[in-house]
Fold each of these.
Amino acid sequence: MSSDRIVQELRWDPVLGEWVMVSNVRELRPWHPEGFCPFCPGTPETGHGWDVLILNNKYPILSEEPPKLRPHKFFKNAPSYGKNYIVVETPKHDLDDLSDLTVEEIRKVITYVIDKYIEELSDKRSVYFLYFRNKGKEVGVSLTHPHSQIYVLPFIPTKVRRELTNALNHFKRYGRCLFCDLIDAEVSDKERIILKSSHWIAFIPYYAHWPFEVHIYPLKHINTLNQVNEVMAEDLAYVLKKVLCGVKNIFENPMPYTMVLHQAPMRGHYSYYHLHIEIYGMYRTSGRLKYAAGVESGAGNFTYDDTPEEAASILRDTIERKCVIQ
Ligand SMILES: [Zn+2]
Ligand SMILES: [Zn+2]
Ligand SMILES: [Zn+2]
C-alpha cells in the first residue's frame, strides 16, 4: 500500500456482525540478516538467564495507544486498543515444537501465561485474553524458535461469542453446562477419547471440523485461566506434551496446527462457560493440507473426509508408538 497514513483500527462488518482488525503497521517490518532470531537469548530485548519470556510484539495489530480514528459516514469503526505478546517458550532455538520441551518446561510456559492473564485483568479496557499457537510454515509461521502468542482484545472473538450464546441457551433449557454434558457424551461413547488424566480429558469431538482436531477440557467446570491451579497446570503440561507429540508424528512430515485457548471474557458473568483448548491439525494425508476453501470460507461449513472416530484411533495409535513420557 502506498498511503503514508497509519491505519490501526477495528472495522465492523455489518453483514456478518463481526469485527475485522485492520492495521498497516506490520508492513514496516524491518529486514533481518539471514539466520538472525529475535527470540534467542542475548539480543537487547531478550537478554540472558530466562526459561520463558513474554515479549511485546514489535509489529502489533493492536495498540495501547491506537491512532486517531477517521470516522465514516456509513460504516462503524473503533479504536483497536489492545496488546500483542509473544511467549518465547524456551531459550533453545532448535527445538521444533512445544511437545519437545519437558513436562516441567511446558508447565512453566502455562504458569507464565496464567500469570500474564492475572496481570491483564487489572486493565479495565481489556475484554478478552486470547492465547494461541501456530505451528508450521504452512500456517504462516516464519520464525521457527518455539513460541506462542497472546492477543488482549477489546472485544469478544466471534467464535467465542457463538459458543457463549449456545452455552447460555443450553443452560437456560437444561440447567446444565453444555460442555460438561458433551464431555459426558464423549466419555460414554469412548471411541473418540485420546487420553484422560486426573484433571483433563482430550478427545476428537463428534463434530470435528479439521482433520485432526483435538479438544482438551478440564474435568472440573472452570471458566477462566486463573482457576487453573498448580496441580491442574502440571497435569495439563503432561496432556499437552502427549497430545501435541501425537499430532506432530501422525505423518512423516510434522503436522502443521493451530492451538487456541477458549475461556470466558475477562469481565461479566459467564459461569455457564467451560474453559477448553482446541487444536486443529491440518494435514489430511502426509504433506496434504486441508484448506479452508470454497465450502469452508464461502459457506462457513466444513466438510470432513473420513470420520472423527477413525482420526481418533490413528492419533491414539501414534501416541502409543511414538510418545512415551518417562
Ligand atoms: Zn532463536
Ligand atoms: Zn462445564
Ligand atoms: Zn471452543
Amino acid sequence: MPPALQALLIQVFSFLACSAIAVLLALALKFNPPLYAIVIAEAGLAAAIAWLRRMDWWWWCIQLLFPPGIVVFLSFGIPPSYSLIAFFFLLLLFWPTYKSRVPYYPSRPSLLPFVRDLLPAGRSAEFIDIGSGLGGLVLGLAKARGDCHFTGVEMAPLPWGISYLRSKLTRSKALFLLQNYLGLNLQAYDFVFAYLSTAAMPALWQKAKSEMRPGAMLLSYEFAIPGVEPDLCINTGDNAPILYAWRI
Ligand SMILES: C[S@@+](CC[C@H](N)C(=O)[O-])C[C@H]1O[C@@H](n2cnc3c(N)ncnc32)[C@H](O)[C@@H]1O
C-alpha cells in the first residue's frame, strides 16, 4: 500500500478511536475530556502507529502535526478555500510522488561543474536528466556546453511548466518533456542523470542495463544502486551528496 494511503488510514483510525474513547468517557463517567487532550491523544496515537509500522520519520512528524494543525487553522477562521488552493498547488508540484515516492527537491548548484567535467571535450554528447524538477541542472549545463544536447524529463506538471518557461525565457536549446521517464527509451543518451530516491534505484538500474548503449554513463546524485559497485564516486563538496557513476 502506498505510504500516503497508509498515513491517511492511520489518521482516520486514530480519529475514530480517540473520538470513541471520548464519547465512552462522557457517557460512562460523565467526564468530558477537553478538545486539546483529544487532539493530542489522536496525534500521538497516529504517530505511534506510523512508528510501529516502520514508516519513514517524516510520516511520524506529519501524523503528529496534522490534527493540531487543523485545530489551529479552524480557530483562526482561515477560509477553507485557502486550503483548497494550497492543496492544488501541492498536487501540481508533487503530482507523481504518490506513486514514484520521489518528491521534488533541487540538487545543489555545486554539482554542476562535476557533471560538466564528465562530458567529453571537443565532441557532442546526448544528456538527459530523468526527473528534471525546475530544470536548473539541465539549463546550467546547456549554457556551459552549447555543443551538446540536453533534455530534461519531468512527470510533475508545475516543475515541468516552470522549466519549460525558463528555457524559453533564457532562449536555451535544452528540451523539457512532460512524461514518466519509465516510458522513454534511454538508448539515445550518452549520459543519464538521476536524482531520485533509494526506492527508485533498482527499477532505474534494470532499465539502464537493458536500454543504455555500452560505453554510456549512468549518473546518480546521492543515491547508490543497492548491490551494484559504482565505477566512480565523486565528492561534490563539504557535506554535499556523492555523485555516483556507472559505465554501462
Ligand atoms: C529530487 S528531484 C530532482 C530535480 C533535478 N533533477 C535536480 O537535480 O535539481 C526529483 C524529480 O523527479 C521527478 N520524478 C520522479 N519520478 C519520476 C518519473 N518516473 N519520471 C519523471 N520524473 C520523475 C519528481 O517529480 C521530482 O521533480
Amino acid sequence: MIIGVHTSVALGLHMAVERARDLKCNAMQFFWRNPRSWARVPLSKEEVSLFKGARKASALEIAVIHTPYLINLSSPDDALFEKSVELFKKEFEAAVLLGVDFLVTHLGSHHGKGADSALERIECAMRRVLELSVARGKNYPVVLFENSAGGGNTFGSNIDEIGRALDAADRAGLSAGFCFDTCHGFAAGYPLESRADVKALATLIDNKVGLKRLRLIHLNDSKGALDSRVDRHEHIGKGKIGLKGFRAFLGMKEFKRLPIILETPKETEMDDPKNIKIVKRIVEEQPNG
Ligand SMILES: [Zn+2]
Ligand SMILES: [Zn+2]
C-alpha cells in the first residue's frame, strides 16, 4: 500500500522527505510555503536539488503539495479571485519544479452566487494555469480537487459538484482528478458506517466523477457528526467514523488501491506512527489482503 502523512517543512523541504522516511512512509504531503500567507518566496536552486536528492534516496512513491486554504477559485469577487489565481499559479509552478505527483486544492466558496458562477470561475482559473510556460511541456503534476466539509457557501462538498468542477477543468484543457477526504465527506453527509454505505459512495463517485479520476485519499476520522459540516480531523478510529467505518472503507477495493495521506492531529511525536500503524493493521486484516 502507498501511505504517508502531511509533513512539516519547517526545517526545509528535504527534511520533510527525511521525516517521511523515518515514519517508513512511501508517500508524503506538504505545504511548500506558509499556508497562511499570500506571499511566496520563490524556490531556490538549492532547495529544489536538496528536495530531489532526498526524494531519490528515499522509497517515496508519491509526493503531494496541498495549496493554502486562502485560495478561492470559485470566488465571485474579482479582487479575491485574481489573488487566488496568482497564488495558485505559484503553487503549480513550485509543484512542477519540485516534480511532485499531485497538487491538491479546495474549490473555495461562491458566496451565494451558486454553482454555475463557481464553475465559470474554476474553468477560467484552469485556463490561466495552462498559459504558464511550465505547463507547455504537459509534464506537470495532476491537479486534484478535494471535497470540502461544506457549510457556508463552500463549493465541492458534494460529489456531484466535484464531477462538474472536473468537467469545467476539462473544458479548459486540464485533465484534473479527485482527492476524497473521508472526514470532509462524512461531515458533508456521506455515511461510512457499513459496507453498504461505502459501496453506495463508490457507486456515486463512479457515476458523478468516474473512479478513474479518483487518485488520492485523505484518510481522517471526524470530530464532527455525520452531516455536521464541521471540518475537524480526528485520529483514526477515535472519531465519529470510528474503526468500523475505516474497516468498511478500506475493505472496498475501489478505495484500498489508492495512495493514502493522513492529516490526523499531531499533538505528540507518537501520533503519526500510531495512526499509520492502525491503518496498516486494518488493511492487513482484510480477508483478501
Ligand atoms: Zn485539504
Ligand atoms: Zn484533506
